[in-house]
Amino acid sequence: MDLRELYQQVIVDHNRNPRNFKELPPPCSHAEGHNPLCGDKVTVYVHVEDDVIQDVTFQGDGCAISVASASLMTEHLKGKTLSQEKDLFESVHDALTKKDSEIDLMHFGKLGVLANVKNFPMRVKCATLCWHTLEAALANQKSVTTE
Amino acid sequence: MDLRELYQQVIVDHNRNPRNFKELPPPCSHAEGHNPLCGDKVTVYVHVEDDVIQDVTFQGDGCAISVASASLMTEHLKGKTLSQEKDLFESVHDALTKKDSEIDLMHFGKLGVLANVKNFPMRVKCATLCWHTLEAALANQKSVTTE
Amino acid sequence: MSKSAHNLETFFDVERYRKDFPALHQEVHGKPLAYLDNAATAQKPQQVIDAISNYYSNHNSNVHRGVHTLSGRATDLYEGSREKIAKYINAKSTKEIIFTKGATEALNLLAYSFGEHAISAGDEIIVSGMEHHSNLVPWQLLCQRKNAILKILPITKKGELDLALLPELISDKTKLISVVHTSNALGTVNPIEDIINIAHTQNIPVAIDGSQALPHTAVDMQALDADFFIFTGHKMFGPTGVGVLYGKEAWLEKLPPYQGGGDMIRTVSYTHSEYNDLPYKFEAGTPNIAGVIGLGAAVDYIQNIGIHNIQAYETELLNYATEKALAFDGLNIIGQAEHKSGVLSFTIDGVHPHDIGTIVDFEGVAIRTGHHCAMPVMNFFNVPATARASFAFYNTFSEVDALFVALEKTKDMLF
Amino acid sequence: MSKSAHNLETFFDVERYRKDFPALHQEVHGKPLAYLDNAATAQKPQQVIDAISNYYSNHNSNVHRGVHTLSGRATDLYEGSREKIAKYINAKSTKEIIFTKGATEALNLLAYSFGEHAISAGDEIIVSGMEHHSNLVPWQLLCQRKNAILKILPITKKGELDLALLPELISDKTKLISVVHTSNALGTVNPIEDIINIAHTQNIPVAIDGSQALPHTAVDMQALDADFFIFTGHKMFGPTGVGVLYGKEAWLEKLPPYQGGGDMIRTVSYTHSEYNDLPYKFEAGTPNIAGVIGLGAAVDYIQNIGIHNIQAYETELLNYATEKALAFDGLNIIGQAEHKSGVLSFTIDGVHPHDIGTIVDFEGVAIRTGHHCAMPVMNFFNVPATARASFAFYNTFSEVDALFVALEKTKDMLF
Ligand SMILES: Cc1ncc(COP(=O)(O)O)c(C=O)c1O
Ligand SMILES: Cc1ncc(COP(=O)(O)O)c(C=O)c1O
After folding, report:
1. Where are the beta strands (DSSP E) in D260-312?
2. Phi/psi at D399 (nearest 5 deg)?
3. CA angle, corner D280, sides to B30 and D115, nearest 5?
4. Where are the beta strands (DSSP E) in A50-141?
């Protein structure tokens, strides 16, 4: 296994220059995610109208995987419907956490770079944190934790 | 090591027919001894006048070593002075519990049969229980425990 | 003695399994060891010893907290054990398996956390008259602290629970019933299903001390429906220093943590600490990692033999020993319940149990003598102590013979 | 990097000792393992592993309760370990050595028993700003339960205790001061002698969390005069699942027991239980017998090398690592106390510690990244986490080199 599989150029790029890295002011909903094991903290802001994600942004402090994952997530989801988001959440979660998942993340554009995280079990939660946090924001929960 | 060293005929005899196995009524002092590990329980009664042990008896429930030891003790101590008792207590205690004791219990008549108990470390407390209980009775403590 | 091991046949290939237990193959006082003290602690198969050595030699690392390779491997082994054990006792989820230092710690954890959650002055807790001190003293301490009341379900002369009295004992103040599955002092197997049924009709939770059950019988948490179930590793061929508190997830979610420290919290500041998820909320500090891994290996080992085979063979063994005991002059069996497992507790007229212990030891036979941490049981039967032979699947009929030959010597020696 | 391991000399024959540690001799991701996570848990010498296997293979039995040979041998080994440890830390008596599951349990035991004995509403307990959660959360829980007040002795930017503030913190309500000897997050060695002196002039007892001290330095209970001293086996080359609470006999006599169960009581009836003598009053249930015996073997091992040799060599190692760290571009050392031991905690600009951990792991280097169970320390330094290399006497200068080569890769990978 080569470490470049994890730290692909896209990930390094999104970590250094995270997209949509900003707050959205209320009344947009937001939620905080926290992985105390590594200290990752992320806040996801989301603005939904007519069942469409009009805008989604994040802020926080975390490892390259968690920052890049959040950046890629926001980029991908802007303009998607809530039901598309739900499918995507389940695909990502399934692909990264289920041993015999048949989901191929390569079908989801740049998000494909997350596929390899599966080979680094200790880093999976870094990649999924922002997704759980988005779910919480959409459900209007205040915070979420993964470990 | 032969088990007969522990269960010598004198011990078997005193276990089956304990001497001085009775209560002494107040105002004689008495104390209870207890070894919860094996369930041994002994009550020692003692009657002292003019610094001489006029009478000493016991009652209780215990293994052969503890019963025989108590029986032998009472037999030996009747008529002895308190200072003789003190010497004897220390000799017995020393001989049975100190690794490099130089006390030879053979000098104390029948009590000599207790000497071998030392070779059975798990049984030493059975032999010393009645002695500690006597000390307690003389000191007017209510109870004592060995383990 | 009419029967002897030579004319007995069994389906169980005991010699095959004995090979796995290095401690069994030694002499004591020049005689082959007959280890009949299994209720105190069981011997360990090489597979368990190797699991521990292998962990320390190849994977040793702290769990849960690292990103490096060894730490990942240690965590996988540790959590893998939890999965094995959850599956083995058919828990619904690994969240229901809390690792402790042993049954005693598990029961203290439960008494403390349940006590903080549910017990106020005047509340009642019911235990039985045949509890090990570990399922008695923690409740006594709790009741003292909270001014609650400990009620005792009595036992009968045969050594069975007097179940008919249970409904009377229960009141609307009863907050918990905690009873032993198999008594270490008597061998009695209690009708825990019935107790759970009775309690649950009144919405009273039940804790079962299964310490003596796991080495001998299958348990199924979902079928049994106990709210809490406790057992200890070293009696089921696992290492010392590890035990399990099983609890239904809904209960464990409600209970406050017991110990504070590393791993059991999510965030800590000076004003506020947030607790971790199950099962970690109850596992403060570095756990007994090697012990947990060893316990997993013990479960593997038991499963390889098949617990039903173990149980069937042990029934033969205990029946054989009981028959001999009944034929032995002056021997009194303490505990003559209908359903018994693993334990033959007895006294011999005119011989103190402590002497029995020493004398049979000189014949290579290891049995326990004393109160077996069950003083109230001794008081009930009005004996200061008993001698106790207790069996595991690796014991043989010949070892039972050796015990009774050795018991004859107690008479030679003391009469 | 100016210096490298090749031109260094040391008096310490590290290769000789490395041979004893099987886990060190393996490859991780195709690179030789450099195990620099010793503050999380230390590796075990073969001597410790063998002591455990030998116990299980030859002597396994429950302790204290039996009259048979194996039980006597197991008890002798178990109590022999207690004697070794008492001697090693120069306790006055073996009664002062309580075996627990680890430092966390020892601290919880202390918080509970001391709390029941001495803490009422409004009383104050002082801990420091650099405690491991295990020496913080138990006191928080106690203070919540008793409506007592937890006060924090602050730390300075260098990562030292601000000792000048201690007299102000102390009031006539102060019932206990509990501080860490050596910080696992910063490496700071605290002036515990001074703290004990200050506290004792006002008759305040002191507890010291020595978990990170024992692997690196000698401790002497009678010289130090701490009232309580806590450490954990697995960090000092012993097994997991065992730790020690040392307490002055006079204190331990006064404190009520923590857990109830077998061995900790003298007599039990339904109306009244009488507790056992020290140290057994605090050791309920079957202890981690193999763990205690393994810890005794670890103490033997340390004594064979000589703790002063260990300390001298580790000072060289840490100095070497610190020099390299200071020369490393973008690296910030977290914790720059005058007196440090065993730990190099750091961050690298622009690289999250978690990524550092993964990347160096691929170079065979095992370090820890995270909050090290010391979140308040992270908050103080305003970092989410740090990377931490922590050393033992079996580490080499070359392993330090390997760490810094690996750290270079983090930049290649992430920029
Ligand atoms: C029925 C029963 N419960 C609880 C215990 C306590 O187990 P441990 O000593 O391993 O904590 C024992 C064994 O000693 C037991 O036999
Ligand atoms: C300073 C300090 N105190 C206490 C502990 C807790 O030790 P354990 O996890 O072995 O209970 C640790 C280690 O984790 C530590 O570093």
Report:
1. 265-268, 273-275
2. -65, -35
3. 105
4. 52-61
- Show the tokens assigned to C11: 């389906």
Pocket test for ligand 2, best of D41, D179, D189, D211 (most atoms within 8 A of CB): D211
Distance CA D291, CA C291 (A): 9
CA distances, C205 to each of B80, C136, C220, C247 (Å) = 63, 17, 17, 11
Q: How far apart are CA D372 and CA D234, in angstroms?
A: 16
Q: Where are the domains of chain A?
A: 3-138
- When CB atoms are compared, the residue of C353, C362, C369 closest to B3 is C362
Any A CB within 8 A of D353 CB: yes
Q: Record the tokens describing residue C319, joined without a space.
A: 């029946």
Single pTM value for the model: 0.96
Sign of CA dihedral C277, C279, C284, C285: negative
Q: Is D291 helix (H, G, I), strand (E, B) or coil?
A: helix
Are D140 and D150 spatial neighbours (Cβ–Cβ below 8 Å)?
Answer: yes
Q: Print burial letters for D292-303: b (CB count within 10 Å at least 16), e (below 16).
A: bbbbbbbbbbbe
Q: Is D184 in the pocket of ligand 2 (CB under 6 A)?
A: yes
Q: What fold characterizes domain C3-32+306-414? A: Aspartate Aminotransferase, domain 1 (3.90.1150)
Quote the strand ranges of B10-113, DSSP E: 29-35, 40-49, 52-61
DSSP letter at D383 equals -
A9 close to A21: Cβ distance less than 8 angstroms: no
CA distance A93 to chain D (A): 21
Taking the CA of residue D140 as centre, how many other CA atoms within 13 Å lie in the half-sphere pointing to its CB? 23
Tens-level pLDDT at each residue, chain C (415 residues) = 445 665 667 789 999 999 999 999 999 999 999 999 999 999 999 999 999 999 999 999 999 867 899 999 999 999 999 999 999 999 999 999 999 999 999 999 999 999 999 999 999 999 999 999 999 999 999 999 999 999 999 999 999 999 999 999 999 999 999 999 999 999 999 999 999 999 999 999 999 999 999 999 999 999 999 999 999 999 999 999 999 999 999 999 999 999 999 888 888 888 777 888 899 999 999 999 999 999 999 999 999 999 999 999 999 999 999 999 999 999 999 999 999 999 999 999 999 999 999 999 999 999 999 999 999 999 999 998 999 999 999 999 999 999 999 999 999 999 8
Tokens representing B79? 């008529």
When the candidates are 3.20.20.70, 3.90.1010.10, 2.10.110.10, 3.30.930.10, the CATH number that belongs to A3-138 is 3.90.1010.10
* Domain edges within chain D: 3-32+306-414, 49-304
What kind of architecture, by CATH, is found in domain D49-304?
3-Layer(aba) Sandwich (3.40)
